[in-house]
Amino acid sequence: MTTKNSILFFTILSSLLLTACNNNDSGNTPLTSQKTIQKYNSETTLTGRVSNKKGNIRSGEIKATNSKNKLIATTQVNKDSHYSLTVPAGTELPITLTFSPTAENTDQDKLISVAIYSSLKKYDINDLTTLIAKKAKSLGGYTHSNMSIAADSTVGVPDANKTSTGFRGDPTKQYGGWH
User: Staple partner for 142: which of 30, 78, 94, 124, CB 3.0–4.6 Å?
Assistant: First the structure.
C-alpha cells in the first residue's frame, strides 16, 4: 500500500470510527427509543357500561380527566347503564374516566377506568377496573407495563381453585372456559 493510499485508508477508517461513537459524555446511552405519547388524533367517542357488585348503575356522572387532572369532558350514565363521551382531538393519554353517583344514589362508590390506548374506544367502568387503576397508580402511574402488572395481580384464580385435581367434567369450563 502506498503512503497516499494508507493515509486515505486511515482517514476514512478514523472518520467511520468517530461517526460510530456517541457524543454523549455520560456513556449511558439507552438502548430503547423515547416512548411516544399516544393521543387521539381526531375527535373520539368513548363508550362503555357502568356497573358495580350490585349490578348495573343507571344514573350518575362520568368525568374524563387528563394526567394533570384537567377536565376534558363529562356525560351522564343513561338508564341502560351505558355512557357515551366525546374526547376532543389532540387529547393525550392516559385519561381517567371517573364515575360519580348522583345525590340520590349516595350508597354507590366512585369508580374509575383508565384509557391508555388511542385505538380502543370501549371502556367499561366497574369495581374491577377501579382496582386495576388504583394498583397501577400505586406502581408509578398509568403505563402499559403498570396496567398489565396491576391486571395480572388483581385478576386471578382463587387459591382453592388453582388445580384441576379431582375435577370431573369438561376442563375447559372449570375457569369460565372458551365454550
Answer: 94
115 grid coordinates: 384509557
Q: Domain coordinates of the chain in residue numbers?
A: 44-126
Paired strand residues for 129: none
10-residue stretch averages of pLDDT, the chain, 179 residues long: 51 47 47 67 96 92 95 96 97 96 77 95 96 95 93 70 50 47
Residue 101: asked if its preceding bond is cis (omega within 30°), the reply is: no
Nearest to 65 by CA among 106, 107, 34, 94: 94
Domain made up of 44-126: CATH architecture: Sandwich (2.60)
Q: What is the 3-state secondary structure (H, E, C) of the chain?
A: CCHHHHHHHHHHHHHHHHHHCCCCCCCCCCCCCCCCCCECCCCEEEEEEEEECCEECCCCEEEEECCCCCEEEEEECCCCCEEEEEECCCCECCEEEEEECCHHHCCCCCEEEEECCCCCCECCECHHHHHHHHHHHHCCCCCHHHHHHHHHHHCCCCHHHCCCCCCCCCHHHCCCCCC
Cα 46 → chain centroid = 14
